């Protein structure tokens, strides 16, 4: 009997190995869009010295292994746009939304400063934002690293003021080839940044007025790889790039690519250092300058500080990512904050309003009219305009507006090495 059980185990295991091999072959042949065969397994088990061996459990293992292989075969394209924001950026955003794809925007500080509303729209749409220097002036940027660093920091402060986030992604105007030496690469990495060049140049900036047909041909004729970063521009004068974009997206979709945004966590594409740059004789920054400016900079991208909120005698905490700092104001998710303070929050889908009950306080946020109404006991209602941001299923509004609508007044705002703190009463 024991021998028969062992033989059954061997037969079963052989069948499962065959299933695994067949599944792997199917996944490799079907590629990204291929369908995985659904295994049908009854709950049959065979006794063994190490416990029961379930066909159902092992079939799940087969599917996990196949899914891992499928993931490793995934093809990814990273669309990237330089030199914005401009009036063309909104057109690009509309196309990306229609096609349901994401991209990365390397922006210039001087343009972001003049058009912060476009930066908001880029961020709100789920795209990534990178640093492309402040003014794009080659003579200044590549005269010395300290000048390049100064422009990166200036743009970083502009973007932090707008979005509350310091971008770690950097793209050198014109690319790193012929511009960067080892000092640029080394010190930017030491400062916490990730420098990205590209795999595919759309050629839309080779000269003025490059036609859409040429831009499309430049992209679609490039050799396909598993991961590809495509360079395009959304700055003034690149209307032909906007015309070409739908065809470029269609091309990569046809070839089974997934669209993603660039991330500091991935290995960057970087050009090698040209011999001409090595012979430019630039003066490297002093060790004291590096220690003062570059070394401490990386800590700016570390874990953020929590925001401790005290209101109506109740204290709660928002972890980094649960709030943001935009235009000098804390932005918070309404439901998260109010429920932690002890309130009840209800969403009315038909009227697109959020109703908050907090003791004798009643607050209504109307997302259509973008107004917030607060009422406490017998007092008259307070109606105020409110800037509303949507993040997935959450409504985000300024913390000050939310508290003042409940009758609370902010009496102190402070920050130290460990936390940020807001007190209202």
Q: What structural keywords apply?
A:
alpha/beta, about 425 residues, 14 helices, Copper Amine Oxidase, Chain A, domain 1, disordered N terminus, single chain, 3 domains, TIM Barrel, 5-stranded antiparallel sheet
- As a whole number of angstroms, the C-alpha radius of gyration is 28 Å
Number of discrete helical segments = 14
Helix/strand/pairing category: alpha/beta
Q: In the CATH hierarchy, what is the superfamily of the largest domain?
A: Glycoside hydrolase/deacetylase
Could you give the distance between the termini?
78 Å
**Structural shape:** globular
Low-confidence blocks of residues: 1-5, 30-70
Q: Write down the CATH class of the largest domain.
A: Alpha Beta
Report on this structure.
It is a single chain. It is built from 14 helices and 23 strands. It is an alpha/beta fold. The chain has three domains: 2-72, no CATH class; 75-301, Glycoside hydrolase/deacetylase (TIM Barrel); 307-424, Copper Amine Oxidase, Chain A, domain 1, CATH 3.30.457. Strands 3, 4, 5, 8, 9 and 10 form a six-stranded parallel sheet that branches. The chain has a five-stranded antiparallel sheet with strand order 15-16-17-18-19, covered by helices on one side. Helix 1 packs parallel to helix 2 (55-72), helix 3 runs parallel beside helix 10 and helix 9 runs parallel beside helix 10 (239-254). The protein is globular. Mean pLDDT is 85; it is low at 1-5 and 30-70.
């Amino acid at each position: 009997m024991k021998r028969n059980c062992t033989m059954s185990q061997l037969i079963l295991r052989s069948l499962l190995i065959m299933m695994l091999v067949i599944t792997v072959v199917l996944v490799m042949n079907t590629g990204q869009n291929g369908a995985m065969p659904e295994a049908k397994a009854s709950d049959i088990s065979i006794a063994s010295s190490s416990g029961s061996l379930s066909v159902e459990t092992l079939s799940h293992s087969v599917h996990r292994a196949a899914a891992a292989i499928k993931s490793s075969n995934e093809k990814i394209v990273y669309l990237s746009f330089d030199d914005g924001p401009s009036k063309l950026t909104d057109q690009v955003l509309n196309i990306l939304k229609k096609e349901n794809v994401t991209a990365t925007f390397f922006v210039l500080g001087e343009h972001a400063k003049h058009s912060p509303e476009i930066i908001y729209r880029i961020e709100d749409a789920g795209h990534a934002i990178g640093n492309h220097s402040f003014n794009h002036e080659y003579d200044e940027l590549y005269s010395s690293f300290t000048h390049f660093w100064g422009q990166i920091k200036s743009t970083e402060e502009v973007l932090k003021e707008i979005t509350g986030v310091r971008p770690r992604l950097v793209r050198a105007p014109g690319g790193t080839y012929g511009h960067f030496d080892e000092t640029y690469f080394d010190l930017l990495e030491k400062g916490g940044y990730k420098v990205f060049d590209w795999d595919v140049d759309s050629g839309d900036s080779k000269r003025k007025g490059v036609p859409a047909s040429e831009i499309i041909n430049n992209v679609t004729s490039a050799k396909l790889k598993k991961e590809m970063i495509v360079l395009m521009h959304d700055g003034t004068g690149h209307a032909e790039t906007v015309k070409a974009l739908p065809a470029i997206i269609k091309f990569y979709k046809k070839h089974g690519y997934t669209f993603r945004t660039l991330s500091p966590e991935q290995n960057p594409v970087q050009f090698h250092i040209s011999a001409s740059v090595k012979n430019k004789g630039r003066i490297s920054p002093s060790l004291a300058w590096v220690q003062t400016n570059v070394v401490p900079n990386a800590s700016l991208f570390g874990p953020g500080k929590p925001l401790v909120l005290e209101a109506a005698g109740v204290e709660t905490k928002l972890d980094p990512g649960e709030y943001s700092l935009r235009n000098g104001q804390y932005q918070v998710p309404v439901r998260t904050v109010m429920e932690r303070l002890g309130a009840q929050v209800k969403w009315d889908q038909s009227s697109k309003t959020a109703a908050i009950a907090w003791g004798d306080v009643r607050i209504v946020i109307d997302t259509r009219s973008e107004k917030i109404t607060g009422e406490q006991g017998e007092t008259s209602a307070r109606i105020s305009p409110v800037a509303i941001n949507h993040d997935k299923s959450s409504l985000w509004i300024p913390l000050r507006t939310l508290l003042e609508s409940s009758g609370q007044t902010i009496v102190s705002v402070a920050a130290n090495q460990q936390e940020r703190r807001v007190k209202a009463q």
